[in-house]
Specification:
This protein is α+β, with helices and mostly antiparallel strands. It contains seven helices and seven strands, in the order ββαββββαβααααα. The chain has two domains: 139 residues, Archaeosine Trna-guanine Transglycosylase, Chain: A, domain 4 (Roll), CATH 2.30.130; 82 residues, no CATH class. It has a five-stranded mixed β-barrel.
Length: 236
């Protein structure tokens, strides 16, 4: 039987891949609580792309597959403690089995960037009890990592698809091939020994929207992963 565990969930407008770094600025009270709880525990929470078609108690709902983020650094942005800066590193991907809603529903006309919005949430939290969780949690099942290798031939094929897509998207502007080689060098993607991390990074370079990357995160075999990346990079 597959092991499950309950973790905090942070829906974001991005896809985090395993072993990718993700810096975040935390200012909402509910996510400050999430970070505080993580720092008292194992420092891990789930990052999921926002599911635009659903909500949880009025808040942004997560897609069902995300990535564990491990906090590697946490510090106050200002001395007032109202904002935190955290650095995280992606670990395993996971599948949500059950969503645990937050204790507070999103108030009407809530503005997360305003002082009034912060006071509004803090007052609600005090009323229900500060031990209650303001953020979404979920029971998740970890997804085993893809441990297969990608051949150099298949990697070069993906790179060529990426180049063709960039050249086509830039029209009528002409993109010189040497400039694309320079981009690959900048992102450390010039290699004769490609790994799965190279595939993730190339996909991110070729995507226009975070939703384009979700199927790639959800791939569970190397063959499926390559197929999804080929679909992303193929000019429609």
């Amino acid at each position: 039987m597959t092991e499950t565990k309950i973790i905090p969930i942070f829906p974001l407008d991005l896809v985090l891949f395993p072993r990718q770094e993700l810096p975040l600025r935390i200012f909402e009270p509910r996510y400050k609580q999430l970070v505080d709880d993580c720092m008292l525990g194992d420092g891990q929470f789930g990052v999921c792309l926002i599911d635009e078609t659903n909500s949880v108690n009025g808040w942004n709902s997560p897609k069902m597959v995300g990535t564990i983020a491990k906090i590697t650094k946490c510090e106050d942005v200002e001395m007032d403690g109202l904002q935190l800066h955290i650095e995280t590193l992606g670990r395993n991907s996971f599948k949500i089995k059950k969503i645990i809603p937050p204790s507070i529903a999103q108030p009407e006309n809530y503005d997360p960037l305003s002082v009034e919005g912060h006071h509004q949430i803090s007052e609600l939290h005090e009323k229900i009890g500060t031990e209650e969780k303001m953020y979404i949690q979920a029971e998740v099942e970890l997804i085993p990592e893809i441990d297969e290798n990608i051949s150099l031939e298949k990697w070069k094929n993906l790179v060529e698809l990426w180049k063709k897509k960039i050249i086509k998207q830039a029209l009528p502007q002409i993109v010189e091939p040497h400039s694309l080689e320079h981009v690959l060098e900048q992102y450390y993607l010039t290699t004769d020994t490609p790994t799965i991390d190279y595939i993730y990074s190339l996909s991110a370079l070729g995507a226009k929207d975070p939703n384009d990357l979700q199927p790639i995160l959800e791939a569970t075999t190397m063959a499926q992963l390559i197929q999804k990346v080929e679909e992303l990079l193929t000019i429609k």
